[in-house]
Amino acid sequence: MEGELLRILIAPDPLLRRKARPVGPGDADVVRDLVPRMLATMYRAPGIGLAAPQVGVGLRLTVIDLQREDRREPVVLINPEIVSASAETEVREEGCLSLPDQYADVARPRAVTVRYLGPDGVRRTIEAEGLMARCLLHEIDHLDGVLFIDHISSLRRNMILRRLAKAQKEKAQA
Ligand code: ZN
User: Fold this and answer.
1) 9 occurs within a structural domain
2) Could you write out the DSSP letters of every residue in 95-126?
3) Which residue spans within 18-110 are E strands per DSSP?
4) pLDDT, tens digit, for every residue of 106-138?
5) pTM (2 decimals)?
6) How many whole angstroms from 85 Cα to the centroid of ligand 1?
7) How far apart are CA 24 and CA 60, in angstroms?
8) Could you give the 3-state DSSP secondary structure of residue 51?
């Protein structure tokens, strides 16, 4: 199982800042191979969402699962698009597997509607609010090279990036 796990890129890796391209028919094999590995990597981390750019793959693909271990309910979103977002926002503490142990309060729309393709190629629409809406917006941001720290003040962002660099350096020396 270990071999199937993917390495999660850590900020400020430049690959996290690249805009991912849409998944096309020619990517079917890659997606079929990647989805179970992304899910396994996310569960192992553990996290509730993982986008392909976070594992160095520049495709518009993300996986989300808000459920507990005993009742997994993975959502696989290919080429997700935000159809609408509520004007009403909500502030909540957010983190990211690419910025381990760093958290900040982030304001995001309280509700969103997202259109996407399922892994079976079927077009779907999801209407979400609260944590699921936040997670969808966070993961779709990744596909555009955007991180949650881009939604906070530059002062706080730089503080987080400095703290992260220090922690990574200590980890490398340990
Ligand atoms: Zn993230």
Assistant:
1) no
2) EETTEEEEEEEEEEESEEEEEEE-TTS-EEEE
3) 49-51, 61-64, 75-85, 89-96, 99-109
4) 999 999 999 999 999 999 999 999 999 999 999
5) 0.95
6) 19
7) 10
8) strand
The answer to whether 81 touches 113, Cβ cutoff 8 Å, is: no
The first and second tokens of residue 120, run together, are 């079976």
Q: Give 86: exposed, middle or buried? Use CB within 10 Å, 0-12, 13-18, 19+.
A: middle
Judge whether 8 lies within some domain. Answer: no
Q: Mind listing the pLDDT tens digit for each residue in 19-77? A: 999 999 999 999 999 999 999 999 999 999 999 999 999 999 999 999 988 899 999 99
Tokens of 107: 């304001």
Q: Compute the distance from residue 41 Cα to the ligand 1 centre, in Å.
A: 13
Residue from 4, 93, 139, 170 carrying the catalytic annotation: 139
Distance from the alpha carbon of residue 29 to the mean position of ligand 1, in angstroms: 25
Q: Is 4 a catalytic residue?
A: no
| Number of structural domains found in the chain | 1
18 assigned to some structural domain? yes
Instruction: Supply the range of the domain harboring residue 90.
Output: 14-173
CATH (domain of 159): 3.90.45.10
Distance (Å) from CA 38 to ligand 1 centroid: 13
